[in-house]
Amino acid sequence: MDIKEKLKQTLIKKATGYKVEESVCEYGVEEDGVRLLKKKVSTKYYPPDITAINLLLNEKDIDYKDLTDQELEEEKEKILKLLKEVEDGDKEK
Predict the structure, then answer these.
(1) Angle at the Cα of 20 (from 19 to 26), degrees rounded to 5?
(2) CA pair distance 61, 57, nearest whole angstrom
(3) CA distance 18 to 15
(4) Distance CA 52, CA 72 (A)
(5) What is the pLDDT of residue 35?
(6) What pLDDT does 79 receive?
(7) Fewer C-beta neighbours within 10 Å, C or N terminus of the chain?
C-alpha cells in the first residue's frame, strides 16, 4: 500500500470515527526485579471529524506532478488553511 492510499484510509477512519484501546501500567520494584502491579485497559472513542468528512466529500483526483508552481502554491495554502482550522477546532475542545 502506497503512502497516498495509507493517508486516505487514515482520513476515512477519522471521518467515520473509531475506538482505541489504551492501557496504563503501574510497576513496582521488588527484591526479584520489576513487577507489574496494576494494569488498566480502557477504550476511548473518537467521534467522526467534520473536517475529515469535508475533505473526503470534496476530494479530487489531482495529479500534483502536472501542476504549475503557482497551482502547487495555491494547493499548499489551501491545505495549510485546513490544518489551521483543524488545530483551532482541537484547541477549543
Answers:
(1) 145
(2) 12
(3) 9
(4) 21
(5) 92
(6) 77
(7) C
What distance in Å separates the CA atoms of residue 10 and residue 3, rounded to the nearest whole number? 10
Which residues, in sequence order, are CB contacts of 29 under 8 Å at separation 6+? 35
Q: How many angstroms separate the CA atoms of 10 and 57, rounded?
A: 15
In what helix (H) or strand (E) does residue 15 lie, and over which residues does it extend? helix 3-16
Tell me, yes or no, if the pTM score tops 0.70: no
Contact predicate 51/86, CB 8 Å: yes
pLDDT of 47: 92
Query: Rounded distance, CA 63 to CA 60, Å?
Result: 9
Q: pLDDT under 70 in the chain at which residues? A: 60-64, 87, 89-93
H or E element, residue 90: helix 69-92
Spatial separation of the C-alpha atoms in residues 82 and 49, rounded to whole Å: 13
Strands of the chain, DSSP E: 18-30, 33-46
Residues, the chain: 93
